[in-house]
Amino acid sequence: MGKIIKIILAILAAGLLLLLLSPVISLFVSRPLTNHAYYRLFYHVIADKETAGAGKAEEKVLRLFQYVIDHEYAQGAPYEYKPLESLIYGEAYCDFQARTLNALLGVAAIPSRYAMLLDKDGVSPHTLNEIYLNGKWCIFDTTTNIIFKDDKASHFSLQELSDHPDLIGNQKKMIALKRYEPATYWHLCSWFSRMFPMPAALQRSVPTISQAHILDRIGDGYFKLFKRRFFNAYQDLYLKFKVRYSGQNDFRLFFMARNYHLAYRQGLALKYYRALLEKYPQTKFREDAIFFLGMLYFEGGDFSKMIELYSREHPAKWRNAVYGYLGKAHNLIGNKQASIEAYRKSDIFRLPTEILEELAIYGRRQ
Fold first, then answer.
1. CA 135/CA 111 separation, integer angstroms
2. What is the C-alpha separation between 146 and 65, in angstroms, rounded?
3. Rounded to an integer, what distance in angstroms lies between the CA atom of residue 258 and that of residue 256?
4. Distance between CA atoms of 140 and 62, rounded to whole angstroms?
5. How far apart are CA 329 and CA 24, in angstroms?
6. Is residue 30 part of a domain?
7. Which of 223, 209, 22 is closest to 106 using CA atoms?
8. Residues paired with 73 in a beta bridge
9. Residue 87 lies in a domain
10. pLDDT in tens, 21-73
């Protein structure tokens, strides 16, 4: 009997050891398991960095909401990607933007779910987030950059919006948009009218915070204990074994640059962006690399270098995003007129209310 107990204890100890080492072991097994572990740790890095110093949950939500707006754009073929890949490529329509925000809020321990709204024909024109704050599910829409609130600055739910669809046109951003570009305002009102009042039961995801399994929790523990030291080592191994020796050379350089960029490892990101552009000047990733390299300059505070790069190269694929960043950069260096002109050419759906209000002062877009 004693021998059997020892064998059982040994098996349990071995199982526990394997469980504890699961994040490391995942690097050497199937790609789906490796990607899952890597992606979750990546979300931790982003959430930890973007919410550093934030106080209440709502401040964390606002920072992560803005992060998704700044890093995912409605273009390209994002349905080929998974949520983290949509950040890597920078392309995501409403459903993947909502999933990305869900994932970031999940590791930040803030309940969030995405809601696929339906029209009277059962088609889903739009997906947005419901985030649990102050005892209720509140509406956040990354695609239009609207956080739905009433005239007292209080959040309301999807059901409340369905019961009072007039609240849509009364949003501060919508009012500013009506002043600046009425045609777009009415187009947006018409689009929302397909979904509100809600003609059918919508489709919701399970709140992200409740989806994590035991292996996720172990990875969470590693990050909590060792933070960036663990992730940096994990990322280097992941890129070495899963990326570096697969695919075409220009893809590898681009993919590594983007992974290091999103992980706030600016020096390595700069190295690989430059290597890609120097070694493969005609690569299909050229416009992507130029846009993200400019973003890297902006994030490092080198606004003049970003402006010079975009003025010289101007990646057409990223036209709206480029003008958005040019607007920000010119504003930060005090060039107000250039800032206004850049914002006029950017994607107004992504612009925050205060910028639309400022644009309205200068007159409607021609």
1. 11
2. 10
3. 5
4. 9
5. 41
6. no
7. 209
8. 91
9. yes
10. 556 666 666 666 678 888 889 999 999 999 999 989 999 999 999 999 999 99
pLDDT band at 213 (very low <50, low <70, confident <90, very high): low
Asked if residue 196 and residue 107 are part of one domain, the reply reads yes
> Which parts of 22-151 fold into alpha helices (H)?
22-25, 31-50, 57-71, 83-89, 94-107
Q: Which of 314, 307, 312, 364 minimizes the C-alpha distance to 338?
A: 307
Count of domains forming the chain: 2
Pair 98, 128: CB distance under 8 Å: yes
Is position 259 within any domain? yes
CATH number at residue 306: 1.25.40.10
- Number of C-alpha atoms within 13 angstroms, CB side, residue 342? 21
Backbone angles phi, psi at 141, to 5 degrees: -120, 105
How far apart, in Å, are the Cα atoms of 279 and each of 88, 272, 287? 21, 10, 15
Among candidate residues 209, 231, 259, the one where a domain is terminated:
209
pLDDT digits (tens, 9 = 90+) for 325-363: 999 999 999 999 999 999 999 988 889 999 999 998 876
Are 197 and 253 within one domain?
no
Domain boundary (189, 209, 229) is at: 209
Please report how many Cα atoms fall inside a 13 Å half-sphere around the Cα of residue 256, on the Cβ side.
27
Residues 253, 204, single domain; the answer is: no
Q: Tell me the residue range of the domain where 338 lies.
A: 249-361
In the structure, how many helices (H) and strands (E) does the chain have?
Answer: 18, 5
- pTM comes to 0.89
Does residue 125 belong to any structural domain of this protein? yes
Q: Tell me, what amino acid is at 51?
A: T
